[in-house]
Specification:
By secondary structure, the chain is an alpha/beta fold. Helix content is 40%, strand content 16%. The chain has twelve helices and 13 strands. The strands form four sheets. Strands 1, 2, 3, 4, 5, 10 and 11 form a seven-stranded mixed β-sheet that branches. Strand 12 and strand 13 form a beta hairpin. Helix 6 packs across helix 9, helix 10 packs across helix 12 and helix 11 packs antiparallel against helix 12. It is globular. The termini are far apart.
Length: 378
């Protein structure tokens, strides 16, 4: 009995020391861990997304279809766009920018001019200090098509390179006019959604959120290659069509449900969240972030060490599984404790104003790399 007790005591002390020094134990080097924020890129909503996405029943979105351009050159993209009028699409989101003009662009320009309900991408750069954005990259013909081709910013909110994409931004305030946009420019998915269903602009305005969480779980989309368009036209007619490269390795990002997902598929999930009103309650991101903060910063070191203690003492069940489950469980405890504290405060001080409980106003800085803006220019 004594050896087991000493062993348990030793493990507890070790876990306490590691959690205090490293904040996230199970690392071979403190300096390597602290210099790499990707290892702590976990939010409480990720756990629920993973569980929900593992359900055997999935829903195929019948309103959104993805066309995989699969590395087509400008001539090939022009051929795809020439088929769009035959499909009478509700909207066409082209997730490709043509930054520099090239010889023989006449067919591409004609196809773009003849494509109904087209939305083109634009890349923005975030300015330090005022939180506004300026023009990064845009197709060379944007000025000439401004009257009938709306633009949407394809920037993805990211705290650092390779961070998990959980949200999309609705609108971007801009410093100077971009084509015919003076004060702000919508995100790519918002521009596509408004083109397909103009009433959604009022819905987003009423929610008033700068960032919206993407509802990933249990949602699939029909994906067709260019040569399959004609044979499957009946599945695309009248739908929202997203055109992009689903296999571009330079445009892959981590999400709560998978380690790699292409930018155009992230746009598909964000668009589905908008048009099907699948966005989380407006206070959910705020509550989850507060729970994460309570766990990461304010929780006692011994509490934070508990998942690792369980993992060490129960290796036969798989360390990583125990770590994930125990870590998520403790975050839920923090969330419940936070809710009870809120209820107590509300009961004891009902005259206090409710500040910051509705709209989330904090913006994570965008990681500005070409693959996090949109697919490389063709």
């Amino acid at each position: 009995m004594a050896p087991k007790l000493l062993k348990a005591l030793g493990i507890t002390i070790l876990a306490f020391i590691l959690s205090t020094v490293l904040m996230r134990p199970f690392s071979f080097s403190a300096s390597a861990f602290l210099s790499n924020p990707e290892k702590s890129d976990f939010a409480i909503t990720d756990f629920y997304s993973i569980v929900a996405d593992s359900r055997p029943v999935r829903t195929i979105d019948d309103d959104i279809v993805v066309i995989n351009l699969n590395g087509l050159d400008r001539e090939g993209i022009a051929q795809v766009l020439e088929l769009m009028p035959l499909l009478s699409p509700a909207a066409v989101g082209l997730d490709v920018a043509f930054v520099e003009p090239r010889d023989n662009d006449s067919r591409l320009l004609a196809a773009i001019a003849g494509c109904p309900n087209l939305v083109m991408p634009v890349a923005l750069n975030q300015n330090s200090g005022n939180g506004k954005f300026s023009l990064g990259e845009i197709s060379f013909f944007a000025d000439s098509t401004a009257r009938h081709v709306p633009l949407g910013a394809t920037n993805l909110p990211a705290r650092y390179a390779k961070s998990t994409i959980r949200e999309f931004r609705t609108f971007f305030p801009i410093n100077h006019s971009i084509v015919n946009y003076t004060d702000s420019i919508p995100s790519f998915v918002v521009a596509v959604a408004q083109t397909a269903r103009p009433s959604l602009a009022e819905v987003l305005a009423r929610r008033g959120n700068t960032l919206e969480m993407i509802n990933y779980p249990s949602r699939s989309f029909r994906i067709f290659n260019p040569e399959e368009i004609v044979g499957n036209a009946h599945l695309m007619a009248g739908k929202i069509l997203l055109l992009g490269d689903t296999d571009d390795l330079a445009d892959m990002h981590a999400t709560p449900v998978t380690s790699t997902m292409s930018g155009v598929m992230i746009h598909a999930h964000a668009l589905s969240t908008i048009i099907h009103h699948r966005a989380h309650k407006r206070d959910a991101p705020h509550r989850y972030q507060r729970a994460d903060n309570a766990y990461n910063a304010g929780g006692p070191p011994l509490l934070r060490s508990t998942p690792w203690l369980l993992a060490i003492s129960r290796p036969q069940h798989g360390n990583r599984l125990f770590i994930c489950l125990a870590d998520a469980r403790l975050r839920v405890i923090c969330l419940r404790h936070m809710d009870r504290s809120d209820e107590h405060m509300a009961g004891s001080a009902q005259t206090l104003p409710q500040i910051g409980c509705g709209t989330r106003t904090t913006l994570k800085p965008l990681h500005q790399t070409s693959n996090q803006i949109f697919n490389p220019a063709r």
